[in-house]
Design a protein that fits this description.
This protein is mainly beta. The chain is 5% helix and 32% strand. It has a single domain, classed as Elongation Factor Tu (Ef-tu), domain 3, CATH 2.40.30. It has two helices and eight strands, in the order βββαβββββα. A six-stranded antiparallel beta barrel has the order 1-2-7-6-3-8. The chain has a two-stranded antiparallel ribbon with strand order 4-5.
């Protein structure tokens, strides 16, 4: 990209209404069904497909990773609530970490305990055994940490 390319106009094409994603791996742990809390000490293995092995190069040098995953069991949930009760207060589903979201995506920043081949060991990932993993990214404190962030009621 040359210097002049920055000043050219860009006509963005219409974004797609539907998006198709493929799993790059799966979560393996001892958690068989979804739960709202108690993930802090759960250790999981993220088994990445062999064809993505080269893409993991250098990830083992980070202390934490961001995992993006698809909460597939929630997709078949009979209810698709707009709100859920959180500590007695009706709260919009997008203001929670509930799995009953419109697209059932989960995102978690977790400590990376180790990498062996195409298997990442992590702690605190709030995903059950067999959950499809869509993407992995290094956790970068200068972008991902926001010490000034606030939480309702705190």
């Amino acid at each position: 990209m040359g210097l002049l390319d920055r000043f050219r106009t860009f006509d963005r094409p219409e974004p797609p209404e539907r998006v198709t994603l493929e799993a790059i791996g799966w979560v393996r742990n001892d958690v068989a069904k979804p739960r709202p809390r108690g993930w802090e000490d759960v250790e999981s293995a993220i088994e990445v497909l062999p064809e993505h092995a080269e893409r993991l190069q250098g990830l083992d040098e980070y202390s934490h990773v961001v995992a993006v995953f698809y909460m597939d069991l929630a997709a078949d949930a009979p209810e698709k609530p707009s709100t859920v009760p959180v500590e007695g207060v009706e709260t919009g589903i997008l203001a929670t970490r509930s799995q009953l979201r419109p697209n059932h995506l989960g995102v978690a920043a977790v400590p990376l305990l180790g990498v062996e081949g195409t298997v990442l060991r992590v702690r605190g990932l709030d995903a059950i055994d067999g959950t499809p993993v869509l993407d992995l990214k290094p956790y970068l404190p200068r972008y991902d940490s926001h010490p000034e962030a606030t939480i309702p009621g705190e």
